[in-house]
Amino acid sequence: MKTKQHFLGIILLLVFVIAQTGSVLGQANSGKLIIKGTTIDSATNTKLAFVTVKLNDDKGETIRAGISKEDGSFSLSMLAPSTYHIVIVTLGYAPKTFLLNLHKDTDLGLIALKQQVNSLKEVAITGSRPIIKQKADRIIYDLQADPESKSNSVLGMMHKIPYITLDGQENILLKGNSSFKVLINGRPSPSMENNLNAILKSMPASTIQRIEVITIPPSKYDGEGLAGIINIITVKKLNNGYSGSLNANESFPVGGPGAGGSFTAKSGKFVIAAFGGASVANTPKTTFTNSRETFGSNATSLLQTGDRRSNNKTAYFGTEMSYEIDSLHLLSGQFNLNGSRATDHMAQVSSLDGTNGPLQSYDLLNNNKGTSYGWDAAVNYQIGFKTVKNRLLTFSYQYADNRNNRNGDVTITNPINFNTPDYTQTDIQKFNEHTFQVDFVTPVKKVNIEAGVKGILRSSNSNFGYNSFNNATGQFDADAALSNQYTNKQNVFSAYNSYQVNLKSWNINAGVRVEGTVIRADFISTATVADQNYFNILPSIAVSKNFSDQTALNFGFSQRIRRPGINRLNPYIDRSNPNFELTGNPNLRPVLLNDVQAGFSSNKKLSLNLGLDYSFMNNLDLQVADFDPATQVTRTSYANTGKSSSFGSNLSVSYPVCKIYNVSLNGNVMYLWLQGIADGEIVHNDRLMYSFSLSNGLRFNKGWAVNADLNVVSRNPTGLQGYSNSFVSTAFSMNKELIKNKLGFAARVNNPFTGYRNNITRIFGPDFNQLYNSRDYYRSFGISLNYKFGGLNDGVNKSRRSIENNDVAN
Question: Which GO terms describe its cellular component (predicted)?
């Protein structure tokens, strides 16, 4: 009770500080003068829309800018008396510059612009824009500067980004950790995060501008995501008009057709940006083996062999909109929608042997169907202040809703000493979330101060059932003992305060975040309740030093938290394989990570980024597998049983060997110390983890480009008691620009020298060893067509602060 009162006091105090800061730091109005005019074509007197009008000071710095409307008129208000250099520019016309001594409201009248008629020979740009940039708290990867993005998906490009690797199942790991958060354009999308891998696999990389890896998230972000945040930017900050891109692609024998695109447009004070796409991911029939050896007085050997095939259809859509009410008030919002439908067919032969011969056998046919769909919407109201530039107060609200349904039909044939009848499993999950947030930002000399309060109200529900076939009635009867209804309500209340200092060569970002969590879990069918309350104080600091020789040093410290999400808490038991069960743990508690980082970067001809990282965790929630010799079932669940520490390094190098050839290397090396308790005994899973991605790019004349990639990934832990095998992959791609800066064609082949790969996972315990080996397709081919259209001159207006829910791990 005291903790709740203490936390409420902190929030009330911070609200008071925010309110008082606005009044204490206020200044007098700087001016109310107006400049207006109309832009026209000098030859035809036609009104010119979307012309940029800038007001520069004596140093050439732009202090105000505007755009002419469709009738050619423009107006700049709230100006102080001064001398301004007026610069008027637009595409296809010669720029116009003149001096104005402003001391009263001024109408410039008709401003005639002359068309540029000079013809220039085509100029070849030999320099290239940097693909990777490093800041104090993040790494930025420019996908548009990488030609390979024209033929790949966003998921397929992830291995080239510093700190990121993909494991054997194409799961994303950030600094070797599966706990991280994903933002779209700096904002959360719970509906997309719920189906992340499928969406990123279907999203063409050519529709994405850049990806930011935030390794030391500032205090304004929620504390969740142990390894950090991946921010995917789809919107390019350009000017008036419209701009967009379209992509159509096909991959085989694994994969299928797909299409995606992005679009940005501005009309007056209204701006809209959207992206979307759809794809089919088809995996033809592959084979697998699953074996388990148990020890002790009654040693057994289980062997399962079979085949499976799957199909997944995914579609997604996202949009951002803004309306500039006036120069001080901005209304913005976002809406995201996605859905998927997956089917999986598996046939399996299972036999269990003891020391004296066969004990049990059966054949199994399993048909699984799953649907997932979700949407989220947010609105932000931003208020500026006349007295202080860049002082902002933002009110935000977001609602998110997700639905997931799983249905499995299991048919048993040829049973020997196996009495389980045919059965079906269903799990209906519902999730919704309300978020309220207030943010305040103000500059004080060279310091930028940020503060805010936030409340998240979540509700998760799972209704899972198990139905056994009744031979007497010929129907499936519900089994109450294996069914349940589960409700989880989680409320998170937080407040933050941070300070940014930008000096000549130093950049410092420091802050603290306080978070209080209240959880209530109800098991409706069994009438039991589980409650949890916890309070966390999470500091963060990032410091960078820039040198005159284009090098920089950075270091930082942060604490992060991982709250278990519905997938880890849900007590639904997946019995798709009768000898192996998978379930969640509603009693899981959060995990706290301490992380220390240091880095060096050089932006010379040899581009170099080097990072060091040390982190440690206690009370770590891990997947734990226990074998029950009475039932011959291995059950895997989650438990706060482990602790870990890791020390690692990241290296990213890029070098232009010559005019047409560029080589780059992205590598990660980390040693992990991991231990926990399984079946009452201490288990260690220490190992060296590494990954390397070598990329070779050749750029020829007439729009031709060729890329060759080599990827090496080591064994990776799959929990306290498991690890996956290492692998090597290769990829070759070709791009051809058919219409300059408009239309391009790309082709890609993955692993041309290897048709299949054995994807192996080993799991061990005090009394058993298990090995799962899936023979997966490895060689694949893909083609894509990319089209860019339109022209823009101004960016999408966004509120400087908005809701960023990134505090739950699944």
Answer: cell outer membrane
Partners of 132 in the β-ladder: 141
What does the pLDDT average to over 525-543?
Answer: 81
Q: How far is CA 704 from the centre of its chain?
A: 31
Model confidence band, residue 240 (pLDDT cutoffs 50, 70, 90): low
- Confidence bin at 6 (pLDDT 50/70/90): very low
The secondary structure of 516-554 as a DSSP string is: EEEEEEEETTTTEEEEEEEEEEEEEEEEEEE-TTSEEEE
Write out pLDDT tens, residues 105-130.
888 889 988 876 543 333 333 344 56
Burial 224-251 (b: 16+ CB within 10 A, else e): bbbbbbbbbbbbbebbbbebbbbbbbbb
Q: How far is CA 524 from CA 157, 238, 449, 491, in A?
A: 44, 53, 47, 20
649: burial class by Cβ within 10 Å (0-12, 13-18, 19+)? middle
Dist CA 112 CA 42 (whole Å):
5
Whole-number Å distance between alpha carbons of 60 and 99 = 12
pLDDT at residue number 687: 92
Quote the CA–CA distance of 363 and 420 in Å, as a whole number.
12
- By C-alpha distance, which of 541, 454, 543 is closest to 496? 454
Distance CA 794, CA 91 (A): 13
In the three-class reduction of DSSP (H, G, I as helix; E, B as strand; rest coil), residue 480 is classed as helix
- Count of alpha carbons within 13 Å of 536, Cβ hemisphere only? 28
The helix (H) or strand (E) run that includes residue 85 is strand 82-89
Supply the pTM of this predicted model.
0.73
Secondary structure (3-state) at 702:
helix
Beta carbons of 808 and 172 less than 8 angstroms apart = no
CB neighbour burial string for 312-328, b if at least 16 within 10 angstroms, e if fewer: bbbbbbbbbbbebeeee
| Residue 21 DSSP SS3 | helix
First-to-last CA distance in the chain? Answer: 29
Look up tokens 């438990």; give the residue. 639
Give 3-state DSSP helix, strand, coil % of the chain, rounded to 5: 10, 65, 25
Residue keyed to tokens 């500032």: 218
Whole-number pLDDT of residue 20: 41
Give the β-pairing of 229-233 and 181-184.
parallel
Task: Provide mean pLDDT across the span 486-513.
Answer: 90
Residue 154 structure tokens: 């966003």
Distance CA 86, CA 89 (A): 10
- For residue 191, the model assigns a pLDDT of 64
Q: Give the containing element (helix H, strand E) for 75.
A: strand 73-79
The Cα 22–Cα 686 span in angstroms is 53
Q: Which residue has the tokens 């999408």?
A: 796
Cα 747 from Cα 782, distance rounded (Å): 6
Q: How far apart are the C-alpha atoms of 196 and 316, rounded to whole Å? A: 11
The closest alpha carbon to 565, from 685, 400, 453, 716, belongs to 400
Reference 430, options 372, 483, 479; nearest CA is 372
Is residue 174 within 8 A of residue 228, CB to CB? The reply is: yes
Measured between alpha carbons, how far is 245 from 743 in angstroms, rounded to an integer? 10
Domains of the chain in start order, with CATH, are 31-113 (2.60.40.10), 241-809 (2.40.170.20)
| DSSP-derived 3-state class of residue 145 | helix
